[in-house]
Design goal:
AlkP superfamily phosphohydrolase/phosphomutase; disordered C terminus; about 475 residues; nine-stranded mixed β-sheet; Alkaline_phosphatase_core_sf; alpha/beta; 2 domains; Alkaline Phosphatase, subunit A
């Protein structure tokens, strides 16, 4: 009897409301999957970001266990957050587990796969810097080029305010090349994983085109073009679903509008908790707290013994945390006249687990998701963050079709670390006992939704936490 096969497509940044808005006429494959398959909501961590979500999905563990909270290390002794790589997660990704021994894989463009580690099959990794050694086996680029396929890395196509088509076309081309590679490599694979990033990249840069008053016709929207590229790929993958092959599509993040990033370092400086130094960097010897790297959405205390110029003795940590929390929760966003934050939570409340020390000391919960913490200026400036008009949201979608999903249409709410056990069932393998997630097969009931972190009670009555007000 043929072995079970699994195909997994990540449509990074896909927002369910846009799938509905664009409709089956423009996105026939998305709507086919949602109507014929088992579907549900994907709900990310309180801080929705690609690296923790993807590592959760493919390690089968939440961030407090695998230890990844951003693209960069949250606590670097020299205050220059280093890029994380395939050696950083504290738990192995699924294709490196012994349970998949003898199963061939094809993994394309997933964070946490670079530098490449050998697998039984093929990998096109997700490098965070330019490199010519991003594949396994090393000769894979030559093989693909012989078939006219030339994948490029995200870092090779970066938005810096260039003309619209000079950015949009290379981003879409990158997803088309990845799709072509995945379709070619899937023929010999038991497990195929493809991550498409154009929806995310173009939603960051061109979300304003989606909003009321946009002068662009719907068919000219840059974001729609990214969804259509993903839809075409999804359709070709769905055509491979049969009695032995299941297809799962999901996004670890949703998307929504952004109005402005707000510098938490400026708030800390006004309160005397951060002292600016030469070159715009803090004077570390006189700084008690500073904003953590983007994506981690938090504040770090400049703790002696953890940082090269730590100024806060460990015994003073509780008092400093309380002071920082009070300052941040009292801060009014001058752009709205409302509180900037709904919560400034100790990391232990948000990320209980053995790797909680890798998270920022305080995790910031925006009161309005359209106004977000800027992040450490060393990286936020280099990534042109202030040019963005859209940002991540916690909720997106998941949907599956094939023998692993035969049954109910409504699969309920999932969390990212449910993906790994689901892939095991798609492959017809038992779920390893160390994986805490549930399978999304329409039969196993979802685990109860985790309790939301308690907020601080300082948000005025009637203030929407979902970004619904103010304008």
């Amino acid at each position: 009897m043929p072995r079970r096969r699994a195909i997994v497509l990540i449509t990074e940044g896909a927002a369910p409301e846009l799938i509905d808005r664009f409709g089956p006429g423009r996105l026939p494959s998305f709507h086919r999957l949602l109507s014929e398959g088992t579907r549900g909501t994907m709900r990310n961590e309180p801080v929705p970001y690609e690296p923790p979500g993807l590592i959760s999905a493919f390690s089968g563990h939440p961030p407090a266990v695998h230890g990844i909270f951003s693209y960069w290390k949250v606590h670097d002794p020299d205050y220059r957050p280093v890029v994380l790589d395939s050696s950083s997660p504290r738990r192995p990704l699924l294709w490196h587990r012994p349970e998949l021994s003898g199963r061939r894989v094809a993994v394309i463009n997933v964070f946490g796969t670079h530098p490449v580690r050998p697998v039984d099959g093929h990998v096109i990794s997700y490098p965070m810097r330019a490199t010519t050694h991003a594949c396994h086996p090393r000769g894979l680029p030559v093989e693909l080029a012989g078939a006219g396929i030339r994948p490029v890395h995200d870092v090779a196509v970066w938005f810096s305010g260039q003309a619209r088509e000079d950015f949009v076309s290379p981003v879409l081309r990158a997803d088309r090349e990845r799709s072509a590679a995945a379709l070619r490599l899937a023929d010999g694979a038991d497990l195929t994983v493809l991550n498409l990033t154009a929806i995310d990249r173009l939603s960051h840069a061109y979300w304003q085109e989606l909003e009321p008053g946009s002068p662009l016709p719907e068919n000219d929207l840059a974001v729609l073009r990214a969804y259509q590229v993903a839809d075409e790929t999804l359709g070709r993958l769905l055509d491979r679903a049969d009695e032995h092959t299941s297809v799962l599509a999901f996004s670890e993040i949703g998307f929504g509008p952004l109005r402005s990033y707000c510098s938490v370092n400026d708030v800390l400086a006004e309160a005397g908790l951060l002292v600016p130094g030469p070159g715009g960097r803090p004077d570390w010897s006189r700084t008690a707290a500073f904003e953590s790297v983007q994506g981690s959405q938090g504040v770090n205390i400049n703790l002696a013994g953890r940082y090269r110029e730590g100024s806060v003795p460990p015994g003073d940590l509780p008092a400093v945390l309380d002071k920082v929390r009070g300052v941040l929760l009292d801060h009014v966003n001058p752009l709205t006249g409302r509180p900037l934050l709904a919560g400034a939570l100790p990391r232990e409340e948000v990320y209980p687990g053995p790797e909680v020390a890798e998270a920022p000391d305080l995790v910031l919960i925006p009161a309005d998701e359209r106004y977000l913490p800027l992040g450490d200026p060393f990286w936020s400036g280099r990534t042109y963050r202030r040019l963005q008009s859209g940002w991540h949201r916690r909720e997106s979608y998941w949907a599956g079709l094939g023998p692993a999903f035969a049954g109910a249409v409504d699969g309920g709410t999932a969390v990212p670390h449910d993906i790994a056990p689901t892939i095991m069932t798609m492959l017809g393998l038992p779920v390893p006992p160390d994986l805490p997630g549930r399978t999304l097969d329409g039969h196993t009931p979802n685990e109860p939704a985790p309790a939301e972190p308690a907020l601080d009670g300082r948000v005025p009555d009637g203030f929407a936490l979902d970004g619904g007000a103010p304008p």
